[in-house]
Amino acid sequence: MQPSIVPIVRPATFRKRGSNKASPNARRQSGLLDIHAETGQRAIAAAGLYNDFLELVRPGEDAKRVMDRNGTILFDYAGEPSLSRPEVDRGALRAMLIGSLPDSSIHWGRKVAAIIPLGEGRHAIDFGDGPVATADLVVGADGAWSKVRPLLTDVRPVYSGTCFLEIGLAADDQHAATFAAIGTGTLMAVAPGQGILAHRNADDSMSGYVALNREEEWIGAIDFTEVRAGLGVVAKQFAGWASHLVRCITDSIAEPTPRPIYTLPADLRWSARPGVTLVGDAAHLMSPFAGEGGQSSHAGRRRTCPMDRGKSRPPQRRPRHI
């Protein structure tokens, strides 16, 4: 009997509040992601998608600029033409990966309620609103609040003390000074305990985050029902900063979604258990500042589910998906 693999996809990740009808387009994938040659690119090549990946590379957009609160440039890196750590659009990368799979591989809108061990490495997956599925192998790729992780360890994520808030600007003449500060890649305007992180998108718009070291309750208490008022509360934390940097906050057109940064211990280990494993944030949740989270996820998936090398798509003969 062929083993079965259940991809765990949580609709909450797609922000379909009050609905269970998630889809590939339910959540906007904003911003850029650098894909490292020694980890992420190797996984993509193992899946036979390297040539497709090269079509997504954004030359020169690995440029990095660091400013202080006054807009003074402290560090300016123009980027490099090599492919050691090229930037790609997150949405385009996700579309490429999903597009490489058979249509039946991902069941959107199936929220996992519980996973019940059945013995001999098999598990029952209860979706709470329909038939229970069974599988010989469950790969938990279900993020920070994984429903699979408790099968392997009792350790839970802890708040890091830093919270992000999504921001964005459309490409227009009103923000010329702001876009000039960002440059062609990523801007990090920083001061102790706070920062504005922004980067240029393919359409010349800006996506990014405000970063603040605050209690989790502080950001959670801000009422963003009135978006401008909520953004104003955040902007007050940047009093005295250069005005063209603060406008990244006050003029933002992005949905102001708070994103508390949680982490798992760097030395987290668990004992192997038949029929279940973890990859991605479910296995090694970390802050984004090292730029290694996505790379570790790709590398983990490559080790867990190796593909035949040299093929443009995953092999047709593959484990059954539920």
TrEMBL record:
It comes from Novosphingobium barchaimii LL02. Keywords: FAD, Flavoprotein, Monooxygenase, Oxidoreductase. Residues 289-322 are annotated as: Disordered. GO terms for molecular function: FAD binding; monooxygenase activity. PANTHER family: FAD DEPENDENT OXIDOREDUCTASE DOMAIN-CONTAINING PROTEIN (PTHR46972:SF1), MONOOXYGENASE ASQM-RELATED (PTHR46972). This is FAD-binding domain-containing protein. Residues 312-322 have a biased composition (Basic residues). Gene3D superfamilies: FAD/NAD(P)-binding domain. It holds the Pfam family FAD_binding_3. It comes from the Bacteria. The keyword Oxidoreductase applies. Residues 134-294 form the FAD-binding domain.
